User: Fold this.
Amino acid sequence: MKSRFSRMVDAVLFSEILKGLVLTFRHIFVRSITDTYPHQKRTLPPGYRGVIVHLRYDDGTEKCVGCALCEAACPSHCITVVSAEDPVLPQRRIAAKYTLDVTKCVFCGFCVQACPVDALASSPEYEMATWNKRDLVMDKKAMLQLGDRYFPKRQKRPPYTEERFALFNKLKTSTFPAAHKIAV
Ligand code: SF4
Ligand code: SF4
Assistant:
């Protein structure tokens, strides 16, 4: 505990203020660690989970097969999938409609892990500020555009051969007989 005399000296000389000023001046010459965003951007760590994007195969076709497993896995219920037959390849399915509400997304990456064809990925995109939150409901086109930007290296598309179609049709008819053949 300080004596009464030293407290009086401190009060007269404003020593506490002087100590504070010395500390402040010392930090003027220390290199700043603050990034001047947006002019200076941080280097993101590997595996950073930003906005979820859709990916394509090397021939440009989208990987998504509209199975809706991502929708089921999402804890925030921010994904909506409407599945349909591919108009070009009827044995293949696609997501006729796919929306992701980024305002609800918690960037957990569960959807990426749930996807059986690796059609989703966590991108390093984090600059999504907007005046209108409806702009943050992304459709498949917007997600594919982001995917093209951040993942230009694409996986080779597996061949859709006639043999595979034949095997699929055989399995389909043997496992699920046509409705008129089901005994009532
Ligand atoms: S990252 Fe998580 S919260 Fe966001 S869409 Fe995927 S599963 Fe849902
Ligand atoms: S993104 Fe993957 S999990 Fe989601 S609907 Fe498409 S194929 Fe299925």
